[in-house]
Write a structure and sequence with these properties.
Two copies of one chain form a homodimer. The first copy, chain A, has twelve helices and 16 strands. Chain A is an alpha+beta fold. The first copy, chain A, folds into two domains: 254 residues, L-amino peptidase D-ALA esterase/amidase; 121 residues, Ubiquitin-like (UB roll). In chain A, the strands form three sheets. A seven-stranded mixed beta sheet of chain A has the order 9-16-11-15-12-13-14, sandwiched between helices. In chain A, strands 3-10-8-7-6 form a five-stranded mixed beta sheet, with helices on both faces. In chain A, β4, α2 and β5 form a beta-alpha-beta unit. Chains A and B meet through α2, α9, α10, β14 and α12 of A and α2, α9, α10, β14 and α12 of B.
Amino acid sequence: MAALPVSPLAPAGFPVLPAIKGVRFAAAAAGVKYKDRNDVMLAVMEPGTSVAGVFTRSATRSANVLDCQDKLGRAADGPAAILVNSGNSNAFTGHFGQTSVAEICTAVAAETGIDPARVFTASTGVIGEPLPHERITAKVADLNSALDAGALEAAAGAIMTTDTFAKGSAAEVEIGGRTVSIAGIAKGSGMIAPDMATMLVYIFTDAKVAQDALQAELSAICDRTFNCITVDSDTSTSDSLMLCATGASGVDASGNAEFSAALEKVMLDLAHQVVRDGEGATKFVEIQVTGAASDKDAKVHGLAIANSPLVKTAIAGEDPNWGRVVMAIGKSGAAADRDLLTISFGDVLVAEKGWVAPSYKEEQGAAVMKEQEITVKVDLGLGVGTATVWTCDLTHQYITINADYRS
Amino acid sequence: MAALPVSPLAPAGFPVLPAIKGVRFAAAAAGVKYKDRNDVMLAVMEPGTSVAGVFTRSATRSANVLDCQDKLGRAADGPAAILVNSGNSNAFTGHFGQTSVAEICTAVAAETGIDPARVFTASTGVIGEPLPHERITAKVADLNSALDAGALEAAAGAIMTTDTFAKGSAAEVEIGGRTVSIAGIAKGSGMIAPDMATMLVYIFTDAKVAQDALQAELSAICDRTFNCITVDSDTSTSDSLMLCATGASGVDASGNAEFSAALEKVMLDLAHQVVRDGEGATKFVEIQVTGAASDKDAKVHGLAIANSPLVKTAIAGEDPNWGRVVMAIGKSGAAADRDLLTISFGDVLVAEKGWVAPSYKEEQGAAVMKEQEITVKVDLGLGVGTATVWTCDLTHQYITINADYRS
């Protein structure tokens, strides 16, 4: 498959990421599948690091995900490591997949001296093919000796599959006059033929946050960020989001509101970058739902709109087709009353009281749809529930990437 | 929008439909939106006709659907009528929509002498524009005087929007040495810019079946036929399925198994024709799910596979991408165990025991995917739940129809 052009929605460039005290990175070319590019990254965290994670809910999730979930469930201290490879997802590879995970964890543990129960992995790429883990384990010594606090950008590049740009984000917070840093990388939702898109996200901070608090924080913010984006409604077998707090800044950020806000900013930025790299995307779409019977209902409506092929193709065609938004709300299963709905495209009121707004002119809606970033606002008129979700349009390029190219 | 080419999956021609005793049809050109073609149909049933219906569950359903549901809920006898127009869906037209329905029902009642509470309507076409109901009511006298038992094919043509072929199906059953006939027509899921696809189905029989029994039969069979098809997971505001039993054959078919089987055959045939006219469809896909924890779980898995954009684009690309089937099963939310899954494409065993089958060769799967009709078989290995669902592939033409053309 030929290299895809960089998404028109990509940021201007990769951001400058601060070094995070207590964690070092390395990337290497192991030749898992791709030639002449880095495809393995290793992160090593100092003792005292808390590690939290959120993973795909897929019933057919990969051996790596199952292993990470098992390890996170056990309280543990000491140093920790994360090894990620691209090029092969190690998903649906039967018992061989578990062996590959064990071999990689054993190799990392042997080289770094870290308890294998604190070594986490992820794999992304082609599925159903045995992971040539020996190519990865052969590189662990090199990776370990190359560890560098400044190598997070290289790590971001190594976990890409057919992402069209590397994704990073960072924030700094002052707590009690001292600075705490947060930096994260992500991959997704580029396509790797013949595979499904996978989202991998790794975030690091030198703040000190206890394990349970870190997990609670990550899960809560994930619900408002990564769980509010969709490209095509399909869910990978490998999706993984991990947050590591090394504590090396010496600053305890547990329960600190400014830290939470900074973490959410980084997570939202990375989530948006994943949407901006959605397969074939030409429009970045924010769907703001208000007035729903509950926040949960608002999210159900928002995702129904965001996942509707008819809404997404209308946006691709720059068609202010509010009827399809009405349709998506109607089918979502959450409470709605046709005659209480209000729909706007950007700041243009389109429909209200069960019909097109008297003030609405088609050319106003058409002008909004020509923008590269589009906001769809829906008020249900029922209650105080709100949600915001993000998606992209559905274009010929999506079909081209997923149907026309063969592995 | 230029006329679409006839679907490559269309039947060879419109079937010969038997006349159904006790019901007559007429079609006319009212100029609701289209020029020079029939766009209104009227069906008039004799006294003693039982009428059953199943409608969209959309929370934003049309005024016509709300009116039909209200009328079906009230027991009633006497003659009955159905009037359907194409070209305008009368959906999301506020209180004006209710007025349009009332005006049409009043006009039909005045002309035919039928109680307006026994006059049912449906509208399909553009949404959000007021229905010019006066164009329809102006044709009611002509329609009434043209009623003919043999005009069901003309009725099938009148309810088309951008369907690429008219859809009809029929069956005859011998009960106690006498013949009972069933004939039905359908429209869907062609697109009418700038609108959503709508499915309308009308089935007539001269069997005698009590109202409650007829409704129960229709709902049960609908769950195995029309509720098992999907083109793009979007749900119309206007979907309507009605079954009218005139009793004019004098044969009571209540509880008769052969009648039920014949009715299911007609409904399944019409449901398949709707899929065969799916927007941009080039492949007709049957998904057979067995071994699920329950029938309900089996249907959830089947629809998750059938609605997955990644599965549908793989089929469009003739790619035997079983990994995407695994993905769809994993995300469906119903019970699954990766290591107990068995997946076949046609008669080719592809994956089992959590991995690709040792006997599988990619060229075998590729050969199956080149067919125009493809069967995907999934066994969960968990229980005895089964379901079969039908869908089509997702192609460039779907994007072209829904994004590139503007209203």
